[in-house]
Amino acid sequence: MSAYYAYAKKSFLGKSAYRFDHLMGILSTCLQFFIFYEIYRALYGSSENVDGITMSMVTTNFVLSLGLGAIFAPNDYFLPSRIWDGSISTELLRPMSFKGRMIAENVGEAAFNLIFKFVPVLLIAILTTGMEKPAGAVNMLLFLVSAILGYGVLWSISFTVQMTSFWLINIWSLITIKDVFVNILSGKMIPLWFMPVWLMGMLKYTPFASIYFTPVQIYLGQLSVSETLFKCMIQVIWTVVIFMIGNVLWNKGQKKLIVQGG
Fold it and tell me: Which of 257, 75, 77, 261 is nearest to 167 (CA)?
């Protein structure tokens, strides 16, 4: 475990070395939030709510979703970059799990983003907008648990997409498609409350809604205890299922891997 901790720490410190990039990350997240905020404020106009959804609920959704999005930033090119330059052959010889190292480095980056991206954006949003407070202390605790599970779902999706790089020269298009699905179907860009009822009924069972929208619902107290446990169970199931698919591709890909040059 000490080796994985060292990689996580290295990743954390590595991110802190690029201060300008860090500041641009905060600015980018704040700009995204305020752009969405102003768009929806204009759409709401003088109305207090639309179909029972208040502007403060929409604001809270954007703050949490964009904030968690800043934290949940798995490196989609972790494996592809090493296949492209041939260093994967050396990586596989290390006396530690390559997948474990992926997770450790991503956790290190996530910890950095939590402290230096999410917290500043959260403070700015609290001071300048009508973000709602958590429905209660228990809701806040369950929100944190669900957010971690949501990260597991997103990481597993990224992991599985990366595994296709054993067969594809460039997976940029797949990563782009993945990002579009995640941004739209997770409620990050468009709160799922505004989706058609039939589509909402389908999306709540997909892995995408589990990433951001489920934690937001728990935070706002929209789910009962039984519903919360059910949604968390869905998050766990999707994490395991998607990771297993990626693991199958990983095992098959290693047998197919051919590294030239060096």
Answer: 257
